[in-house]
Amino acid sequence: MQSMQQTVYFDNNATSPIAPEVKDVMLPFFGNLYGNPSSMHAFGGQVAKFVDRAREEVAAFLNCSPEEVIFTSCATESDNSAIRGTADWFGKDLKVITTAVEHPAVLQPVRRLKALGFETVELPVNGVGQIDLDQLAAEIDSAKAANRPVLVSTMWANNETGTVFPIEKIAEICKARGAIFHTDAVQVAGKIPVDVKKVPVDMLAMSGHKFHAPKGIGIFYVRKGTKVKPFMLGGHQEGGRRAGTENVPYIIGLAKACELARLGMADEAKKLTALRDKLEAGILASCPNVRVNGDKAHRLPNTLNVSFEYIEGEAIAYRLSDIGICISTGSACASGSLDPSHVIRAMGVPFTAIHGSVRFSLSRYSTEAEVDYVLEKLPPIIKGLRDLSPFGPDKDVSTFK
User: Fold this and answer.
1) Is 64 a catalytic residue?
2) Which of 258, 287, 326, 333 is flagged as catalytic?
3) Domain 20-261 has what CATH class?
């Protein structure tokens, strides 16, 4: 009997497996505990108590007040709620500042505002994916000089390269100038600590499925007193800040994922850093003409983005997929496009490498044996693709664009 092919899942920045503990706590809410927590009767009221406790757990995860936690469907909704809700409050006097390497969930609503007549700025990044903080400050100052409100929206860490922004300094700059600060914190959830008392962001977005909760549940943190209009209108749920019947099973699962992350994050970070570094060293040692993308000094513990020169990242991903290894060439939300990643382009990666960028992203369930399997299978795949390619260091690269 033929054995099943091994599956190595190294695409956890796209989505992560649901933790068994998360699934277990969700199951009763698909059964007898099916009441609507917004109902007046006791049957629904008992469910509301579980939602309240879940909100408290999420608040402990973020170190905030439970009243500052809003449950959404995903981080895309949370990002849109922050950006469009702030624009609805202030109108076209608002200046919006973001970066060139944001997730589409931020870039697209910002560009929509630009099309509607808002002033928007997309800050460039350097070769390791970091912004110029002096440029950020100058952009805020130019609006404040005209007595205009400013919204700054930057990610905490990049989903493709793992580069971690100096979020404390960004928050400091915004706070000192009275700018509203929103951060897409999707990729840091469960990987590095998020404390909104230490980092005084005004709004924050997270998505449960990035750290072992199910798809379809997100977090929108809004600091008390922040001026933002509701994005979802309808009922009175979430204190009138986000209409729609509460997704109770997923809220309960999200809270459990927050608890697991809060208690296990430090140990997991050490493990993931060691596995990522072993994978990186092995690739660099076994494959010539490879570059690591991102800020190696400030990077998520689970993320490795590399560019293999003279070949296509899609071809690498497909060849690996054929033998059960799951990786990506960028954001899963933009996987329908064959254009080079906007993040890699913004960093100025050379044209010989820009198409060959791939991302490996690990999770708490990743193992050293899986890293060894990748390091065994990847080098011959790279060599085979380069043998087939008309481009290379000793070949004509003039048409490789």
Assistant:
1) no
2) 333
3) alpha beta
